[in-house]
């Protein structure tokens, strides 16, 4: 599959056909939109409209979302063929999130063989709400904030058979690194986190968690592992064979200024 074909597949499966259990999806002639229960983020994942119609479409979506009094983002990708989309969004008081994400893809069948070697680290799968305390513990120490959201979001997703797999790495019987995978319908499995406490970095825990997840992805016959990588993490995943596909930006609506 060449790059253009892969981009088309990505758009079809990850922007149009994808479902989020906690969100209502609506596909109109102009956009694909997702609405969540307040106070969660609502968003537009794909724009079908022509460039000439963007003012109308943006105003239409603002009329739909603005009364909900929730955060609202518009997803933009580097391969979108709408020359003035970002300009029009900014004119309607959208501001680009500084944390751009590079979509990195690994064809599991072509992954480096070392990623499927036996894992020596203490990796455990978390399968219930009680176990999520270890995820919260690691994220709190890594990011220095409160991550109680994990219990509701990830806890809810764990109740859906086959949808979410969460793993933690342990040292001295303490959780020190966490990562998880979402298994949507289609060919892509989405990797998240890979967060490790500072004092336990450079011990191969990220690689052990990646290896554990890739083995599951291969066993479940997904073709691609996908991660949205920031500036710091892109070189890490590239080292493991992930290749660049596209860049994603979130444009956050800042209200009616």
Protein architecture, described:
By secondary structure, the protein is of the alpha+beta class. Helices cover 30% and strands 32% of the residues. It is built from 7 helices and 12 strands. The protein has helices at 3-16, 54-65, 85-91, 132-143, 149-158, 205-219, 234-239, and strands at 23-27, 31-36, 42-47, 72-77, 94-96, 101-107, 122-126, 164-171, 174-183, 188-196, 224-229, 243-253. Strands 1, 2, 3, 4, 5, 6, 7, 8, 9, 10, 11 and 12 form a 12-stranded mixed β-sheet that branches. A hairpin with a 3-residue loop joins β1 (23-27) and β2. α4 runs antiparallel to α5. The longest helix is centred in the C-terminal third of the chain and has 15 residues, at 205-219. The chain is globular, with a radius of gyration of 19 Å. The protein starts with a helix and ends with a strand.
List key phrases describing it.
257 residues, 12-stranded mixed sheet, alpha+beta, 30% helix, 7 helices
Helix-strand layout with pairing:
Elements: H1 3-16, E1 23-27, E2 31-36, E3 42-47, H2 54-65, E4 72-77, H3 85-91, E5 94-96, E6 101-107, E7 122-126, H4 132-143, H5 149-158, E8 164-171, E9 174-183, E10 188-196, H6 205-219, E11 224-229, H7 234-239, E12 243-253
Parallel strand pairs: 3-4, 10-11
Antiparallel strand pairs: 1-2, 2-3, 4-12, 5-12, 6-11, 6-12, 7-8, 8-9, 9-10
Helix pairs in contact: 4-5
